Amino acid sequence: DTAVSQTPKYLVTQMGNDKSIKCEQNLGHDTMYWYKQDSKKFLKIMFSYNNKELIINETVPNRFSPKSPDKAHLNLHINSLELGDSAVYFCASSRTIPITGGLNEKLFFGSGTQLSVL
Amino acid sequence: GESVGLHLPTLSVQEGDNSIINCAYSNSASDYFIWYKQESGKGPQFIIDIRSNMDKRQGQRVTVLLNKTVKHLSLQIAATQPGDSAVYFCAVTGNQFYFGTGTSLTVIP
After folding, report:
1. DSSP conformation letters of A17-42
2. Which residue of chain A has the CA closest to B6?
3. In this complex, which of A4, A100, A107 lies closest to B94 when CB atoms are compared?
4. What residue spans define the domains of chain A?
5. What does the DSSP 8-state code read for residue B90?
């Protein structure tokens, strides 16, 4: 069983289209994330949800809208896709929110969605 | 905030040699550190971790060293194998996960 699964694996679309990426985790974790990885492999956090509540919203265009119907799912919808949105998007989860001095929280990643905007 | 940097973006080593990947962090209050391995076409996977009350931790063929004085950690891979070719990330945990820029390790057969 895949712990963090996201679909689709590849997404090729035209500029201006709207697309969604789905993510599910079966680890029983409370916290889920979306990361964007650029061509230089830099991992940038986009959003984080804890028990369906948004807790991190980095500087991301409002064309990106995450939705968490329950704590096992965090989907990412992107409106009006642009060329610069081309990247690999990773969903991840952790048992709970990392806190300085707290327990050793680890991130578990999905296998990524390669988005190509033409 | 936290900034996490790696000294070398790419590293090539001969099969069988040892590899050392370095990482610097800026927040002296950071207390938990993780190394991830990302193979081509996959998501990052946990390799080894270390808490700030330790300066060394060993796994199977991997060792993480933490120097809190200079805010530096390193990942050592013994007897590097072709399957070790990947991008390696250090991550520092504060109130979120802060990732380094990644080092691409290539193992030459």
Report:
1. --EEEEEEE-S--SEEEEEEE-TT--
2. A42
3. A100
4. 4-117
5. E
B39: helix, strand or coil: coil
pLDDT of A117 > 90? The answer is yes
Q: Does the structural domain A4-117 have CATH classification 3.30.390.10?
A: no
Pairing of strands B103-108, B10-14: parallel
* Phi, psi angles (nearest 5°) of residue B48: -160, 155
Residues of A in contact with B48 (CB under 8 A): none
Predicted local confidence at residue A101, as pLDDT:
61
Segment B52-93, tens digit of pLDDT = 999 999 999 999 999 999 999 999 999 999 999 999 999 998
What are the residue ranges spanned by the domains of chain B? 4-108
Fold of B4-108: Immunoglobulin-like (2.60.40)
